[in-house]
Amino acid sequence: MPEVVVENVHKSFGALEVLKGVSLSVGRGEVFALIGRSGSGKSTLLRCMNGLEKINAGRIEIAGHALGGDARALRKLRTDVGIVFQSYNLFPHLTVGENIMLAPRIVKDVAKAKARDVAREVLQLVGLSEKFDSYPDQLSGGQQQRVAIARSLAMRPKVMLFDEVTSALDPELTEEVLTVMENLARDGMTMILVTHEMGFARRVATQTIFMHKGKIWEQGPSAALFADPQTPELRQFVKSDVK
Amino acid sequence: MTLKTFGLDQFGFLVFSLQWTILLTVIALVGGGLLGFAVALARTAHLKPVRIAAATYIQVIQGIPVLMILFLSYYGLSLAGFELPPLCAAGASMTIYASGYLAEIWRGCIQAVPKQQWEASESLAMTRLQQYRYVILPQAMRISLPPTVGFAVQVVKNTSITSIIGFVELARAGQLINNATFQPFRVFLAVAVLYFVVCYPLSQLSRLLERRLHAGSSR
């Protein structure tokens, strides 16, 4: 039973069709990388998976929840699906600890002491135990992004979505975030990530999907896909990345 | 009738009347704050009819002079059989006036919170109410402090308009004393000074808050 099923999904913004019938299936513990040029629809696809964008046609099932129900059903889905954004989006008025504890406390009614334990645990996971009482603007970009990952993990998600989470970071800060993600993958988290880090996709993703013009252009085990691209578009894309 | 001169007694009367100015300001800000907050929330609601209703309210209130609201609630209602004492009519009018402006100021503040904050909190499975309560409003409140205090200064000065329906606040008290002393320069200078004494600290506070907010950027 796959953890994520996407079936013939279509999505338009006005007259612009961004997704033109996308299907994929992600098994538990698998890591899928979505690559492609900007405008190819990869971020939109990811945002459809937790209902931030509504699909026009098709079917999405994720962590045992079907998308398309009412608000309550959508919230239920979101407790099992974490997402991390390019711009971190930490809550600037709350400390790191409060950022992490907020959703478990108010959404899942976790007791305060328990929420604190969970927060400490996930902070340790991303290597930021000492930042519990800091405010987001006292942290570097890489640290903020690791806190954002920890905040998602505190909800105990079954699937994690990553939307270009290192695109706003310097190379050295990128590394510390990727390390955290690699550890997550190794621990068996089901992950789908939109990324420009080809090296990371190749090394960590079990499957890589190349998106082009709103479609899955090419898909396969990461090593094979990068070593031997079948389509001229992917060949071009991989080559331009090497620079 | 002998003319009095503007002395300590008369000044005391001005200071006493200043209390009414301040009371009226407080009524306007508290009442207008509550009403304006509700309208600001309605202005940013999901449902389009609610948004339109709130926008219309704001447009109407901002589009008519306070004076007309005042006449309507004092003379208009008394014609209709509701005799409001001047304090009530003045308080109600200033409340309505303040609500229209505060709603618009606060709508701007709510919308100034980046849309990513909505997305992040929504993705953490929060309800819309929880998003407002824990994520959006605390941030909007910070942004709103300087303009809100700035608007309070306007309210203090604009309460003078209620003198028209005979409510004896600072401006009306000045008129009364001038009628008795015929020393307009002294009297209204004193009135102006008293307004300034109340408004100046407020506008300084507004500027201080603004600088604080910029220095501490996001927090």
TrEMBL record, chain A:
It is a peripheral membrane protein. GO terms for molecular function: ABC-type amino acid transporter activity; ATP binding; ATP hydrolysis activity. SUPFAM superfamilies: P-loop containing nucleoside triphosphate hydrolases (SSF52540). It is found in: Cell membrane. InterPro entries: AAA+_ATPase, ABC_ATPase_HisP-typ, ABC_transporter-like_ATP-bd, ABC_transporter-like_CS, MetN_ABC_transporter-like, P-loop_NTPase. One of its GO terms (cellular component) is plasma membrane. The keyword Cell membrane applies. Keywords: Amino-acid transport, ATP-binding, Cell membrane, Membrane, Nucleotide-binding, Transport. CDD domains: ABC_HisP_GlnQ. This is Amino acid ABC transporter ATP-binding protein.
TrEMBL record, chain B:
Residues 18-206 form the ABC transmembrane type-1 domain. GO terms for biological process: amino acid transport. GO terms for cellular component: ATP-binding cassette (ABC) transporter complex. It comes from the Bacteria. It is found in: Cell inner membrane; Cell membrane. The keyword Transcription regulation does not apply. Belongs to the binding-protein-dependent transport system permease family. HisMQ subfamily. Its main location: membrane. It comes from Sinorhizobium saheli. PROSITE patterns: ABC_TM1. One of its GO terms (molecular function) is transmembrane transporter activity. It is a multi-pass membrane protein. This is Amino acid ABC transporter permease. The chain crosses the membrane at residues 20-42, 54-77, 185-203. Keywords: Cell membrane, Membrane, Transmembrane, Transmembrane helix, Transport.
